[in-house]
Design brief:
Blueprint lengths: L14 H13 L5 E10 L11 E2 L1 E14 L11 E5 L2 E7 L18 H12 L3 H4 L11 E7 L9 H16 L6 H16 L6 H8 L4 E6 L4 E6 L4 E7 L7 H18 L15 H4 L2 H25 L3 H17 L6 H12 L3 E6 L7 E7 L3 H16 L4 E5 L6 E4 L2
Parallel strand pairs: 4-6
Antiparallel strand pairs: 1-3, 1-13, 2-7, 3-6, 4-5, 7-8, 9-11, 9-12, 10-11
Helix pairs in contact: 2-4, 2-5, 4-5, 4-6, 5-6, 7-9, 9-10, 11-12
Bound molecules: 2-deoxy-2-fluoro-alpha-D-galactopyranose (GAF).
Length: 414
């Protein structure tokens, strides 16, 4: 996983500035490009993406930045196709790719955050993947060196991994003179995560990260890959609550949930749970109790996405907030991927002044919750929330009041 914020004194320095400084310190010259990739928070529509369903994320103003420069003009750059240093890790990610050829064995897999970097590069270089990114065909990977800085907390359910994958994908395709469609980039990053990192995730994170639109949530149809912008009411603050909790073994529980949903869809004779608007009357006799609960959640959650999108579009924050709380109850009781800190954060948020509604967000078990809060009452919300959460958990939460921002982008530095 990519590095997060540097030490306390550095926190006020934007990630973009830290990335440029780190580049100069590492390579002794100036970078020429800056790639910025946002985190995402999902407002509603959790664990629906791999059921071909709907979700409603927001790309937020916590970002991962890579300052970079191509190295095919530097004879001393070595054999590495790609070298990336991180402010959080003394060991760089180094990818030395052989030319893509059917009979070339794939490189050994890196560990840690370098694996995401390598996974994207391998996907881009693989025979067939280049053809999928049409304009890149034949261009191959342009070698580059870069430095990474990030303000996205790690393992918190805010998609630090997708932000890294998309940043590397955009860096590589930009240098190759290609501008793939956002959905193509997202699918490429997802393939890197599925096949190279080994996490069987859906497309929510990658589409949210690459498709972000300032001031808007994104209604994503994960079957058609259509993204519909939903304006966020001006008076509404999206507050991400990092509960400070982190969990291991999330990957295996995630795979279990996915398998349970697929089992439910098979038993109900539909291609995916997306294809059901309600549980059939005989569902209890066709499904085991676990599959029944999973299906009930996914079907209700898809409906909540459209209901929240419609509520936000008409400026009805109270209705949106009620739906978020209903979503939390469903994911806690039927989908069973909440956790004690997430439940405590939601309860403390719901009881605080100005809160329209809250729920856990992301894959689950630990990490972050999200609350919709009246912007004029943010101080009162924070003052009430913080001690209430600490009293319940003995932990301190970190609150991020977030803006909706644009997706992964690249700019020339000079
Ligand atoms: C994780 C996964 F990566 C996403 O694909 C999605 O399934 C999410 O959990 C749950 O909504 O972030």
């Amino acid at each position: 996983r990519p590095g997060s914020a540097a030490g306390p004194g550095e926190r006020a320095v934007p990630a973009a500035v830290r990335a440029v400084r780190a580049f100069v310190a590492a390579y002794g010259r100036e970078p020429t490009l800056l790639v910025r990739s946002p985190a995402r928070v999902n407002l509603i529509g959790e664990h629906t993406d791999y059921n071909d369903g709907l979700c409603l994320p927001v790309a937020i103003d916590r970002e991962l930045c890579i300052a970079l420069r191509r190295t095919d003009d530097v004879p001393t750059a070595g054999d590495a196709t790609l070298r990336l240093v991180s402010e959080q890790d003394p060991a760089p990610a180094v990818v030395g790719l052989p030319p893509p050829a059917a009979d070339t064995p794939p490189p050994a897999r890196a560990t840690g955050w370098a694996r995401y970097v390598q996974g994207v590069a391998v996907q881009l270089a693989a025979t067939g993947e280049l053809a999928a990114i049409g304009e890149l065909a034949g261009a191959g990977l342009v070698p580059w060196q870069g430095a990474l800085a990030s303000d996205i907390p790690l393992g918190a359910g805010l998609s630090s991994s997708a932000a890294l994958e998309l940043a590397v994908a955009v860096a590589c395709t930009h240098l190759a003179g290609s501008v793939p469609a956002p959905t193509e980039l997202a699918r490429l990053a997802q393939r890197a995560e599925n096949t190279w990192v080994g996490a069987a995730t859906g497309l929510l994170d990658q589409l949210a990260c690459v498709g972000g639109i300032a001031g808007h949530a994104l209604r994503i149809d994960c079957r058609t890959l259509t993204i519909t912008p939903v304006p966020l009411p001006a008076g509404l603050a999206v507050v991400v609550i990092d509960t400070g909790s982190r969990r291991e073994l999330v990957t295996s529980a995630y795979a279990d949930r996915r398998a349970e949903c697929e089992r439910a869809a098979r038993a109900l004779a539909v291609p995916a749970l997306r294809d059901l608007e309600a549980l059939p009357a005989d569902a209890a006799s066709r499904l085991d109790p676990v599959a029944l609960r999973r299906a009930r959640f996914v079907i209700a959650e898809n409906a909540r996405v459209d209901a929240v999108a419609e509520a936000l579009a008409r400026g009805d924050a109270e209705a949106a907030g009620r739906l978020l709380l209903a979503g939390h109850r469903g994911i806690r009781d039927d989908f069973e991927v909440s956790g004690p800190e997430l439940d405590a954060a939601v309860a403390a948020a719901q009881a605080a002044p100005g809160c329209f509604g809250a729920r856990m967000t992301g894959g689950g078990f630990a990490g972050c919750a999200v609350a919709l809060v009246d912007r004029t009452r943010l101080d009162a919300f924070t003052a009430a929330f913080e001690p209430a959460y600490s009293a319940r958990t003995g932990r301190e939460a970190v609150l991020h009041v977030c803006s909706a921002v644009a997706g992964t982008s690249v700019t020339a530095l000079r």
